[in-house]
Each structure stands twice: as C-alpha cells, then as structure tokens.
C-alpha cells in the first residue's frame, strides 16, 4: 500500500527508513533507551500502516471526574460506559465503532476487547472512539493502560474539567512530551455548564496559555458539556473532518518520527566542525617508536660493511666476518634470501618515545572530536585508540617488510669482487715468479729470459701493481659503498615513513574518519527523519 506523502519533503516511508538508520548508527554511542525508542517507533509505524487506514482511532483521555465517559456516551448516542464522579469507573478501554467492518485486526492490535457497533453510515463513518481509563487512577494497571494506548491511537482527545485542567501531572507527563503531536490532538474543556460565560472564556483562555507553554499552540480547544450537549456539535464536526481526511494515522506516525528524531538529536546532530588531525606528527612519533632512525642508520652501516666484505682486499676482507652486521643484529634480512624470519630485534620504544606516540594519538582524537557533542566526541577519541594493541606488531612488520630491500647485494659488488681476485691472482703470480727467479739465482742457474715494462721486470710489475691496484680498488669501492649506503638509507627511510604513515592511517586516522563519517551519516539521517 502506498503511503500518503507530505506536500513537501521526504515521504513517511523515507522518514521511517531514515529514523531506523539513525538509530542503527547511534547504537553503542547514544543511551540504549533512546535507540530502543526510535526502533520501537519504526516497528510500531510498520504495524500500524499495514492495518486499516480507512479507520481513524480517536481516544478520549482524561483524569478522574473529568467526564470523559459521559462525553463518550454522548458522542455514541447511548450509554456504553459507566459514569462516575470521584472514583475511577473505567478499568479497561472500550471502543465505539461507526461502520466498524474491517477494524477487527486494528482493535486486536490495540488490544481493546470491548467493542460496540454504534451506527452504520452517519456522519462519522470509519471512526473508532476509545474511552480510556483515568490517567491519574489510583490503580497502576489503569495508568499503564492509558500510557500504552496514548502511544498507539491516531487522534488524542484530552478531556479536562474546570477544576483540574491545570494539573501538573497532565501537562508534564503527557501534553509536554507530545508537543510535536499538535496535528493529532484536541483538548475539550468539559463540564462548561458549571461556569458562567465569563468564567468559561477565562478558563478557555488560560487553558490555551498553558498549552502554548507546553509547545501545543494551535491545538483546537473546545468548551463542551456532556450533560447539556453544549459544544458537542463542534466536537462532532471536528471529528468528522479528521475522520473524512483519513490522514490522522499518517500524521500521528509522522509526529512520532519527529519526536523520536528530536530525542536522538538531543545528543547532538549539528554539522561536524572537527579539527584536522596532524598526520605528520603522528607519523613522526610512530616512526620513532618503531625505531626507524635506528634502522636507517643500520642500513647505511650494513651496506658499507657488506660492500667491504665483498669488494675489499682479499687478504684482509675475511676479517669482516668477525665484526657484527648492523642489520642482522636487528633481525632484518636474516633469512636465506634476505627475508624476515619472525619478529625483528629492533629495541622496544623508550618511555619517552612511548609518551610521544601516545600524545600524538591522543591529539589526533582530540583534534577530530573538537566541537563534536558528547557522546560522539568520546566515541571519536576512543576510535583513535581502538587499535593500540595492534600498533606494535604492525609497526614491526613495516620495519621488516620495508627494510628487506636493504639486504640485497648490488651487482657491481660481484664484478668488483671478481676483479679483486684477478688482481690478487696477478700479485700472487708476480710473487711466485720472483720467488722462482730468486731460487734460480741462489742456485747459480742461468737466468731465463725476463720480459720488462719500461725496464721494470714483469714479475715486479705484477707483484707491486697487483698490490697497489687491489688497495686502490678497495679504497674506491669503500667510497662508492659509503655513497651507496647513504642513498639506500634515504630510500629505506622514505619507504619506512610511507609504511608507518599507512599504519597510522589504517589503525589511527582510519577509525577516526570512520567514526566521523558515522556521525555525518547520523546527522543526515536525522535531517531526513525530522523533515
């Protein structure tokens, strides 16, 4: 069945959907009672709109002695309700039906067992008029029955008398909380026959003033007398007009949605005016806590250390094995191919580094929650710290994965290493050659032909040249390794900062942004629900 639409703004269907969405978004943020009330309104609206919309349920509600039962009988044209003066006589609600065919399911939903078919046709076809128990009854069950039905009926007709129309219980418990239901409310000052014309006008004016203070300005206020029939035609005409429009049920549901949305918005639904979290400061603090400066320094030193071991003078490079590798000391690149095996051995952050990290995370939450209403601000601050337990492991994985490249050996190391062995072989060859010549000379044997290079014998060239070339190559390689280490350290530092920034985005800034998006969606849904 298609719902009636307002002239402007979203349909009732859209508003109910938005209210339910707002309640879902507010779950865990706002008090459970408010969320439950909003869900209850959505469920109740769904049930009511699936029942007969050709019937309008109007309820006569009032205090003991207000004469609502007398008014009920007068409107029905017959004595259906017992009439009392000072004690409650209506214990359960009863219904008078004008053309009640098809209203059975509706009355079953309302749980009204006493039903009276009053008139077929007539001027009020489709009206279901309820006579409720007294809202100030000494019987708790009576008051609970009133509270239940006041939340369900389509049209509320409050019957008051000249003595108790200003009763605080009526205004504070019922009228004021229903301030958004003015379109589905009528107030009848009964027993007006007991007043003079002047007194009646004064009472009606004062009643209108009280209703205005309750937020119900514009609610129809009628003077009537069930005993004399005065004012009954006007009340009957007003009921006829409301029933004929067949819109009271939708207007009631619309008012219920507005009330539930207003209660949710009481916890804050203004546009977000949050500060901008300092992501750069957070990344710096997390980098220090992850030991990034230590790792970057170790990358540069390890590069030089390994370069010397690979390209240094073969006679001395073996000594490098007795010096610790800076990266392996940190557990980085310790696998067979340079991958991480388990956790790294990067030292845990110091107390100062922990304090800086915690301060940066807290500042992110505070900046994002700035100007947000409670408890949403608390939820945002909590979101910033929601993954504290995961930070250490995530940062360690970043250090491990982003530093793997630092363990790779450049190709030129192998080339220079091979060249060093060739130079070393030439030097050894020269030394052996000279040794043979020395032995021949010592044994007084004839000297073999000896090639020269600018009058310098080749064995001497090979020996001295090999030694000088080896030392020179080692020196140049060390300079290149130093420069390469710095360059690799800069690349690793950039990669680590990006990785740490991603961790900060995922575990700190991401949850904060999600919470802010949740609040924005909440305010947008409330805006639709209140439209």
Automatic annotation (TrEMBL):
Annotated TM spans: 412-440, 460-481
Q: Where is the G domain?
A: 58-190
Pfam families from the UniProt entry: MMR_HSR1
SUPFAM superfamilies registered for this protein in UniProt: P-loop containing nucleoside triphosphate hydrolases
Query: Where does this protein have coiled-coil stretches?
Result: none
Q: Which InterPro entries match?
A: GTP-bd (IPR006073), GTPase_Era-like (IPR005662), P-loop_NTPase (IPR027417)
Q: Does the keyword Transmembrane helix apply?
A: yes
Top-rank taxon? Bacteria
Alphabetically ordered keywords of this record: Membrane, Transmembrane, Transmembrane helix
What is the protein name for this chain?
YfjP family GTPase
The source organism is: Nonomuraea roseola
